[in-house]
């Protein structure tokens, strides 16, 4: 299973909205990848900026898989990848 960049953003929005007690539409996310920091997400909630590292992003993806697809996955089953856009590969075997 592959999650698109939009699904990863949705996962982070839902995750951060729950943690900050705001609506998912009040959360903005920008994903990025570079050689120094790897995969990161900059998140804006109520005018404040926060950076998430790869492990935080995977935590949000795990919760999203459970709530949206009823899939119980583990960290080891998820890998992030970047070609034209960032995607998440979920090994459900």
UniProtKB/TrEMBL annotation:
It comes from the Bacteria. InterPro entries: Uncharacterised_YxcD. Pfam families: DUF2653. This is DUF2653 domain-containing protein.
């Amino acid at each position: 299973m592959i999650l698109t960049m939009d699904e990863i953003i949705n996962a982070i929005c839902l995750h951060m909205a729950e943690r900050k007690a705001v609506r998912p539409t009040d959360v903005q996310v920008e994903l990025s990848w570079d050689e120094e920091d790897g995969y990161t997400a900059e998140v804006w909630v109520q005018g404040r900026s926060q950076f998430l590292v790869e492990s935080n992003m995977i935590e949000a993806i795990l919760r999203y898989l459970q709530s949206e697809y009823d899939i119980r996955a583990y960290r080891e089953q998820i890998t992030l990848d970047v070609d034209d856009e960032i995607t998440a590969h979920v090994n459900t075997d």
